[in-house]
Amino acid sequence: MSKALQIAQEVIAAVGGKENVTANEICMTRLRIRTEDPTLVDAEQLTSTRGVLGIVQRGTKGIEVVFGPGKVEDVHDAIAGITGIESSDDPFDADSAPSPMSVIVNEKQSPAAAQASAPAESSPAEKDDLAAVESLISLLDETGAEKEAEAAGEGAALLVINGPNINMLGIREPGIYGTEGYADLLQLCKDAAAEAGFAKCTCYQSNHEGDLVDAIQDAYGTYEGIVINPGAYTHTSIAILDAAKAVKLPIVEVHISKVEEREDFRQVSYIRQACFETITGMGIQGYRKAILDLAEKLDL
Fold first, then answer.
1. What is the pLDDT of residues 60-111, one digit of tens each?
2. Catalytic-role residue among 76, 182, 233, 255
3. H or E element, residue 23
4. Which residues does residue 57 pair with via DSSP β-bridges, in sequence order?
């Protein structure tokens, strides 16, 4: 599976599934999507998607997803392949100007990082888009106090962390990991979190150990609990264990397969020392149990 297809699947899951996409268009390095039901869009999940620098709400049903140069075309094509919706002439409402409060920026993938990864000879359009992302951050800074006040009034927040190759669900060894895809897992977690009483659920996946450590550290002060499947890093990463111990959050370890019946090297779990429960062998439904058990632990 190509990286663009993986990102496209994450974007579609975050905007409420392919049935909720009614238009799919490109404007320079921006992916423009119109949705049937804007209430299904998970803005935080969309912002945390790999390669996304920020998002802007436009009109009543339109959303603009800002990517770095060289990424958006492939993601657009992948979304078109999944949804069957090619580019349209005017995907947004006429009243589509963004407002400061409709801007969300992925601070982990900052404009500085985007600038560093941009071609040395950026076109004027690419430079304009990088400048646009910088303006998004300025707008976010101007409304930071209001956003913090909003967050203070929210209920419990859940972070679901997945390690290497979990994004390959449905393709990777289906006899062991099942035929349901990563998008199915994202939807299951979102539904289970709502059922359990969490106000929001953010799912994060990376194939890189340091990224997973960063995600755990960033959860401190932001999330009330974590559900984690570190993948192969379960059996090797002391760094992930140390991060989990540092934040002192309630954590559930979950594995799709029954790891205790597999290879010898899978019998070691470092992360388990920081978790109050381990769930294995239930397929992706193990995430649902993990989320419900974490909610019970938190007395939601």
1. 788 888 876 567 888 888 899 999 887 764 555 544 555 444 556 665 554 4
2. 255
3. strand 21-27
4. 63
